UniProtKB/TrEMBL annotation:
Native species: Entomophthora muscae
Lineage: Eukaryota, Fungi, Fungi incertae sedis, Zoopagomycota, Entomophthoromycotina
Protein name: Mitochondrial acidic protein mam33
Top-level division of the source organism's lineage: Eukaryota
Length: 255
């Protein structure tokens, strides 16, 4: 039911208007050109507030107003229905770019991690007036994910995978005896992981073994439906975070 509908699950979000984000006018070049002959103090440095503050504040307000006019940022009914049936708990903290999906499966804890930094919006194509957009021709953009499967006392299997065209394409399958090291999100843990053998390149494994690993993660909910859901959720979250960013920056400049 969801495989086709999820591709355009949130039409208002899926066409995040990048062009509108590029409408902020560049600062006048003259403000950045200093005289090669003189370093005398000018009004720019003696004023109690910047000369560009008013323009920046009004432009941010205009951009925020434009985004609000586009409509409230919320998930579509199809997305809400899918999330209700999703076996994973969504851990999404406001202001953070990383999202985690967590569930239990028998004696295992499964965690899927992805980031809105992976969002790439294709440039808007020019479509002749009166013609419909062929949504099937819109290119998909890969999303990197990390899938951690942990068993108490037995360590963690970590799969590095890229979501592309509705599939999880595994690039690496690693095993860590120390589950804390496998999952911990710190620069020290990252450095230690890089020092360990992470396993062979997935495509170099025997084809039969590759298929079994793919079926292994699929049985745990890492399915095509999830691969279609995650890019849509990324766009939904990114738009929410962008709106909040506009508000915060506007209020900072205004203060």
């Amino acid at each position: 039911m969801f495989r086709s509908s999820l591709r355009r699950i949130i039409p208002n979000i899926s066409k995040v208007n990048v062009a509108s984000r590029c409408s902020i006018r560049p600062l006048q070049q003259s403000l950045f050109v200093s005289s090669a002959k003189s370093f005398s103090t000018s009004k720019v440095w003696s004023n109690s507030s910047g000369l560009v503050d008013a323009d920046l504040k009004s432009t941010l307000a205009r951009e925020l107003g434009y985004e609000k006019d586009e409509g409230e940022v919320e998930a579509s009914e199809e997305m809400k229905e899918y999330m209700e049936k999703l076996p994973f708990k969504i851990i999404d903290k406001a202001g953070e770019d990383e999202v985690k999906l967590v569930r239990t499966f028998g004696n295992e804890t499964i965690q899927v991690t992805f980031s809105i930094k992976d969002l790439e919006i294709p440039p808007e194509s020019t479509v002749p007036e009166g013609e419909e957009v062929d949504e099937s021709a819109i290119p998909n953009h890969p999303v990197r994910t990390t899938i951690d499967i942990t068993k108490d006392g037995a360590g963690t299997m970590t799969f590095e995978a890229v979501i592309d065209d509705g599939y999880f394409n595994i690039e690496m399958a690693s095993y860590y005896k120390d589950s804390k090291l496998a999952i911990e999100d710190s620069s020290e843990a990252e450095w230690k992981r890089h020092a360990l053998y992470g396993g062979p390149v997935f495509q170099d494994l025997d084809e039969g073994l590759q298929v079994l690993f793919e079926r292994y993660i699929e049985e745990r909910g890492i399915t095509t439906d999830l691969a279609l859901f995650i890019p849509n959720y990324i766009q939904y979250k990114e738009q929410k975070e962008y709106m909040k960013w506009l508000e915060n920056v506007h209020d900072f400049v205004k203060a």
